Amino acid sequence: MSQKYFMAYCSEITLTAALNQHTFTHILNQSIKNNTSSGITGFLLYDAGKFFQYFEGDELACANLLHALKQDNRHTHIKIIGQGYISNAVFNNWFMGCFDLSKHSYLFKHHAFIESFDVYSWGMQEVVKLIDIMSEQRITYITPQKPIKSLFSKRFMRIRNFTLPFQG
Fold first, then answer.
1. InterPro entries from the entry (predicted)?
2. Out of 4-13, 113-122, 128-137, 153-162, least confident range
3. pLDDT (tens digit, 9 = 90+) per residue, 75-95?
């Protein structure tokens, strides 16, 4: 399998989007549709008006997704936390897992950095830790093809297998 590109970013919800009670559902549905066609996989967390998203795929597809996100009137103050190459996709066949932490906080209750959800202070260390936490929790996810399935397969890439180009 060839290398995959990844991006992790955070953003804030706009006032207009926050006033619509269906915004999160719309983002989930649109993400699954768009990501399926472009081969993007990953996850989105939301809490108290802030988003965190990790996605992976072809480098051009990731760049196009980032461009679309910057044009999306539901997001503001987008901050790229990290980007680079990984040897294999971590989230095979998971076109977009979405967690509203106000409804799913129990999944992360022992992890203070997630509970506080201070995403603008996060770096790649927190991103990698989050991926590791999710694998240990055996969190389930939903895809259009398979209603519920274990998030990580036996081929899960551990922290040490990430290529972080900005580390010395």
1. Acylphosphatase-like_dom_sf, BLUF_domain
2. 153-162
3. 899 999 999 998 877 777 667
Check: CB of residue 152 under 8 Å from CB of residue 158. Answer: no
pLDDT tens string 97-149: 777 787 777 777 667 777 788 899 999 988 888 877 765 554 544 444 433 33
- Tell me if 58 sits within 8 A of 39, measured CB to CB: yes
Q: Three-state SS across the chain? A: CCCEEEEEEEEEECHHHHHCCCHHHHHHHHHHHHHHHHCCEEEEEEECCEEEEEEEECHHHHHHHHHHHHHCCCEEEEEEEEEEEECCCCCCCCCCEEEEHHHHHHHHCCCHHHHHCCHHHCCHHHHHHHHHHHHHHCCEECCCCCCCEECCCCCCCCHHHECCCCCC
Q: How many residues does the chain have?
A: 168
Walk me through the domains of the chain, giving residue ranges and CATH numbers: 4-139 (3.30.70.100)
